[in-house]
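One such shown below:
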Amino acid sequence: MSRPLIISDCDEVLLHMVAHFRDWLGESEGVDFRMDSADFSQAMRWQASGEPVEVKDIWRLLGAFFDTEMHRQLPIEGAVEAIVALGDHADIVVLTNLNDDRRERRSQQLAGLGIEVPVFTNQGPKGPALERIIAQHRADHGTGPVIFIDDLPQHHHSAAETVPGTTRLHMCGEPMIAQHIDCAHRAGHAHARIDRWAEALPWLLDQLQTEGEEA
């Protein structure tokens, strides 16, 4: 019997990231972080000068955070419970845009919070990675429904182009940035936009039931 597959992003879907990154920047790196728009590159300024942080330093600081500060990250409200509940109905994997050498650290981080699932790393648009994961899952478990969850609209666009048969949920569980992120559902690249797990879990369970009956 075929088994449904859920492929979920991590940061701002399962775990808070930007809020912890902001706190660390202010405490240790002399950087103020204020998200006033969807342009992440404009959110960071040096405290000493007020000048914007250059792109090369943004990437350096992001790398340092994931190398040394992942222990700060706390789960999005309801995420752990939802993943456990969904695991009764589908296979679940995490697809996270981190460098490959951070995959094991991310896997251990999630497992320590009660989310014990396979973790895949990726750089750039997620459509091709989704295609590979889905192909392997179907080779092992048959052709079943696939649901993709991510907080960034560009990844839903990539998924819609590369694996159009997936059901796509746009979710950003971090209120600080959710209001600034363009809606992939409104753009036609996601089937729904739901930012809280309390509402997302019933929707996902309904999708699994409906798509399972149609399969």
